[in-house]
């Protein structure tokens, strides 16, 4: 039977249909899906950053802080108490509504050690508290909260799609890159920041999605919300060889200042951790101190974009530059170290601008009329101090380059950033982000935990069923308990069931005379306790065992050190270590 031409066409299409399906299937890969999700994350992140920026602007206008200046129009009590009131609100929200504060260091910890799983409620509450801190005069930046908001957006998409751990790491990186790209209008810097600081290394499968997300986030934030970076005029070196040498010196000085900034921040955190105030009130105390400085030098309050612009336009004397340099470090440390929320990037840029401007003033005394403008050195200082604090020289170079779009200053900027990174690394091995992780016992390099003991936590090894002794019991009862249980130490509880000390066999031997069996446990117990926390690493606890020459530690709640959660001993640590080693060997084979 002869087939009509129309039917021939139909039969031909039926035969070709499997080929079309196969062709489409080539594009339906995991890579294509991740890149598509990266576009969505970029669009959402750009929108989130735009809303965050507008909200921050409105709250600044409402409170009248306007990035901390001009505050001379307000009475002194207003400048003093608004930051304190903002700190009180942050303290209330952080203590009663949040389980964890992240920041960039928390994001690194999450990506590296926590399976890239963020608590979205805590993330966006921290972003909200950053608005309160900054708009009330806290001396912090908005970019780090923007990074966190972007990462939260990526985590939200991952939760919807029920993504695997590896996919979540990529999605969080996409959001974080989009956050910094949208905030600075610098897509390249956003990509490199995630690779350099959060991931620690470059992989093709992560690089392409974060590039895509960074580009789309920048498009949304710049076109829909009009977010613009700090405006910096193009500069030109007058005497390239001489000024290149001066920029090398500036880079070394920036490395020193970066170290001072990091040390001051964590020293301030240590001070506030020891102040016997309820955690709710500590951010208020920090805000009060910043407000006191703001009465005399209002430019140290808020983010300080306008102040940076003034330095770039040669508006300040040497004396003001030096004062603002050191006061900004102090105000920043008080704002963040007391428990406020905000970022470290803009304070680093602010400090670098002051350093660069002051350096130019001194250099101009020796080489008058033969140097570029003061703003050129302020710009180089901005990049160099940021490179030293974050240990991210490539990110610093790209941020300043994308802001200025000026290639003339790229060589001195590169030299200064690299030298600052080398100098600060020699003086202090941790960055402003990894120092907090080191204090928790983590040793993270190139985006990976490098020590088994630093990847295990106290909560994974501690004993939760703990045999205790009342402080009212007699020494005779304690002796009997030690003989029956074969334990040589017990946590001591008071009448309310709160931890009040620890008693060991050595206390019994050194503090009890022969026959003195009626003595109370509270009379011989050690009151000044060394304790451990559930979220500490075994590496940190093991070092404490060695330095204090002890064999057991009570595990307590960080917020209430009298609440006993468990006990950890040297043998518990050894058992946990052996178990982890066996698991790693099994996974290898």
UniProtKB/TrEMBL annotation:
SMART domains according to UniProt: CBS
Domain CBS: 462-519, 525-583
Coiled-coil positions: none
Transmembrane spans: 34-52, 77-98, 170-195, 207-225, 246-266, 286-308, 320-339, 345-367, 379-401
Keyword Membrane attached: yes
GO MF annotation, one: chloride channel activity
Primary site of residence: membrane
Cellular component terms per the entry's GO annotation: chloride channel complex
Keywords tagged on the record: Amino-acid biosynthesis, CBS domain, Chloride, Chloride channel, Ion channel, Ion transport, Membrane, Methionine biosynthesis, Transmembrane, Transmembrane helix, Transport
Subcellular location: Membrane
Gene Ontology BP annotations: methionine biosynthetic process
Keyword Nucleotide-binding among UniProt keywords: no
Protein topology in the membrane: Multi-pass membrane protein
Protein known as: Putative voltage-gated ClC-type chloride channel ClcB
Organism: Methanosarcina vacuolata Z-761
